[in-house]
Amino acid sequence: MKKVGIIGCGGIAHVHGWVLADMENAEIAALCDTDVTHAEKIAGAFAPGAAIVTDWESLLDADLDAVHICTPHVLHAPMATAFLEHGKAVFCEKPCAVNTEQFEALAAADRAHPGKLGICFQNRYNETTLLMDRLIADGRIGEVLGARGFVTWRRDADYYVAGPWRGKLETAGGGALINQSIHTLDLLLHYCGVPEQVKGSLATHHLPEQVKGAVATHCLPDLEVEDTVEAWMSFPDGKRACFYASNGYAKDAPVLIEIQGQQGRICMNGQEVTLYRDGTAPEHFLCEQEQGIGKDYWGCGHKACIRDFYRALDSGERYRNDLQGTAATFRTMMEIYREGRRDCG
């Protein structure tokens, strides 16, 4: 039985708590948040016996086997680095870092303490993803030529008022890309590989209008993050990928990912997957995976993702979402930001 701590007890931490409470080989022993009421809510729902603290550093030497880091982005890498150096296993929410300097420090700690760090890319475990993997492996569309992904969600002033850190580059690292659509970028690379060329642009289309009232009433500082991002990527074997994400849509629409092959294509729209093969009628699949708690567009793979992390800890096998396995997504994201911010500057 592994004793586990959760650092940061906001919305996504409830998902982690829900998963951990249902596991036989893990026990939530500690909860940490600067606002004790947040920790108390998770304790009441999933861990009534957990210790509640407000200082995360007090848990560095605590009797814990692992910690889950669910804090604002800027704290992910420093906290993960510190806990690794204190012998704890770490399951970290995305992103693993907000800049290259943080990433390199975390990578050094990971090399010194191998096999203890996992990054939460739960959409790799979604039933839709696993189905597309099988269709491609079975040769249903032939060789993959490329992919495209679209994320069109809605984030207005209330989102940033509820968490002002989300609107600042220093604390969030960015907006629509690093916070909302990084999972879709990750899946595009899952199907295409590591890009050799990345082009991209950033924009703030709707946020200035949506938040100016909140800014004017001193509820919210000026926003620094993008609400829209687009990118084009090419790969050494000739594949191409197109990527678009915006927080300015009317609602949180299902994510769309399409994989183009030599003999057809696979289209995922939310929980639906459609196979289009040249000269044949489309095949439609509706993927039904156990729904968790929280927002449905977070994906439904948290349970499988977290369970697999603990399975790897117990078996000594490599975890697929370790730092090495997710580094290409981080580096590609940073390249899109470099491209976009250079053009903006």
Describe this structure in words.
- The protein has helices spanning 11-21, 36-46, 76-85, 100-112, 127-137, 157-162, 169-172, 176-192, 207-216, 302-315, 323-344, and strands at residues 2-7, 26-32, 51-53, 66-69, 89-93, 117-120, 144-152, 197-203, 228-234, 240-246, 256-261, 264-269, 272-277, 283-286.
- The chain has 345 residues and is of the alpha/beta class.
- The strands form two sheets. The protein has an eight-stranded mixed β-sheet. Strands 3-2-1-4-5-6 form a six-stranded parallel β-sheet, sandwiched between helices.
- The longest helix is centred in the last third of the chain and has 22 residues, at 323-344.
- Helix 1 crosses helix 10 and helix 3 (76-85) packs parallel to helix 4.
- The protein has two domains: 2-121, NAD(P)-binding Rossmann-like Domain (Rossmann fold, 3-Layer(aba) Sandwich), CATH 3.40.50.720; 123-297 and 320-344, Dihydrodipicolinate Reductase, domain 2 (2-Layer Sandwich), CATH 3.30.360.10.
- Helix content is 37%, strand content 23%.
- The termini are far apart.
Provide the helix percentage: 25-40%
**How can the largest sheet be summarized?**
8 strands, mixed
CATH architecture classification of the largest domain? 2-Layer Sandwich
The helix/strand class is alpha/beta
What's the rounded overall pLDDT mean? 93
Based on the structure, what is the oligomeric state of the protein chains? single chain
